[in-house]
Amino acid sequence: MQLTRTLTAAFAVVALALAGCSGGGQANEAGSSQLVLGNNGDLLTWDPAEMKEGAVIHYAEAVYDPLLRKTPESKIEGNLATSYEYNADLTELTLKLRDGVTFSDGAAFDADVVKVNLEARKKGAGSASEGARAIERVEVVDKATARLHLSEPSPGLLAALATYTGYMVSPTALSAGNIASNPVGSGPYTYDAGASEKGVKYTFKARDGYWNREAFPFENVVIRPYEEFTARYNALATGQIQFMYGTSDMVPKAKTDGLTVKTVPGEWQGIILQDRAGKASAALGDVRVRQAINHALDRKAILDTHYGGFGQVSTQTFNPSSEAWVPELNARYPYDPAKARELLASAGYGSGFKIKISYSEGFMSPLVPIVTQYLGDVGITVEQVPVNGFANGGLETLKGQPAFMLSFSTNIPAWTDVLNKLTPTSLWNNFKYTDETVTRLLKEIPAAQGDKQAALYKELNTHLVEQAWFAPIVTQENVYLFKSDIDVTMQQAQLMPSLRFFAPAK
């Protein structure tokens, strides 16, 4: 293997680029009354029904309030809904709503608004639609009470109501049909289109009369999108932004530059082998081939070199703190090229085969050649297919691809990951694949609670690993870099800490 030399060269390029960071360029916008965030990508739409899970959450949180919210530990608590209660069989969720809340256009928030919003989320094509799928109808009990009637228990519903499914949009704006380009919410800020430029910066001003002002101490928030990591780091180092999601190789330079570095267990990175029925790539239809791909990857070497040790070797796609996690599964696929070649031969691919692997350009670019090299060593020839970041339309290009690499969130509860990747309608299951075991468990898990539910989650996770639905490499430590004039509270199981957790440094 030439892994060390490949990575050393890559690090040298990054180091040179970062060493070139200097003053100049755009004026420093940051100040004690203004928060300037560097974001992973641009925004395609302001409609929460169409937003895809990920870094776009900051755009949404600036203008929209969710019904519920997450603590730093990802526990659920009240927000626009001050309390929530399930019935005995978990098929009805009653929300008691906060009084006196208004939208930025003056419209009042009440149960009728909850009803029209949740109905709109169900019709969308974004992350919210999966969260809302189990909502059969919304009953307006009275102005201050909404009751959600579910087709079946939904363990991820509360978490969904704390993010995209639960973002409340003005009913007037929804009726006007222009919410995709004109955000009108009840959130802490209003979008200042006149002070914004698409693809360059998005400016938000504190909203007068907002009910929870103390949780959002900045008078203005500016979000600047940067697809490329080095450009984003340049902006941070020169004071154009105050915060960014970083990478482990940036940490030494960031510390030298006097930046604050914090980490939290977060995303998994690796390959989604989505063509498990072999429709576009016949080889992937054989579980032995998928297992061979897993044995071909030296996860420990990749963790130590590419990730600088920021994370843990993993064969799993769930959060390490979730009820689905099984520590022993991480030993299921030791690095064993001989075993990989043996499995390929038994599946009829002793001479190897070719496979297209798509990846998110920029973010995944350094990892793809490493994976390509390992797979090539056992006879699998990778055709690399770069696509735009999924926040910028890349998701559409993945639908017909047999396999792809992105950085994937891990969530609490684990049911959010189920909805994202495992159902026939999931965003990351474009071939709509399932099997009898997964179908059974996806029915049994929502109806169970406590230890029984946790055992079913572990059974599901074990099955997915044995059947090699995925080829994870690591569960990485998410790395966040920020200036010393702000403080950020880390948040479990969310790509970006919520805006509530940003404050001026004391």
Automatic annotation (TrEMBL):
- Similarity section: Belongs to the bacterial solute-binding protein 5 family.
Q: So which residues are the signal peptide here?
A: 1-27
**Location of the Solute-binding protein family domain:** 75-403
Query: Know the name of this protein?
Result: ABC transporter substrate-binding protein
- Native species: Micromonospora reichwaldensis
- Print the organism lineage: Bacteria, Bacillati, Actinomycetota, Actinomycetes, Micromonosporales
The UniProt entry, under Pfam families, shows: SBP_bac_5 (PF00496)
InterPro entries listed in its UniProt record: Peptide/Ni-bd, SBP_5, SBP_5_dom
Keywords linked to the UniProt accession: Signal, Transport
Q: Which SUPFAM superfamilies match?
A: Periplasmic binding protein-like II
Give a yes or no for keyword Signal in this entry: yes
Q: Which PROSITE patterns match?
A: PROKAR_LIPOPROTEIN
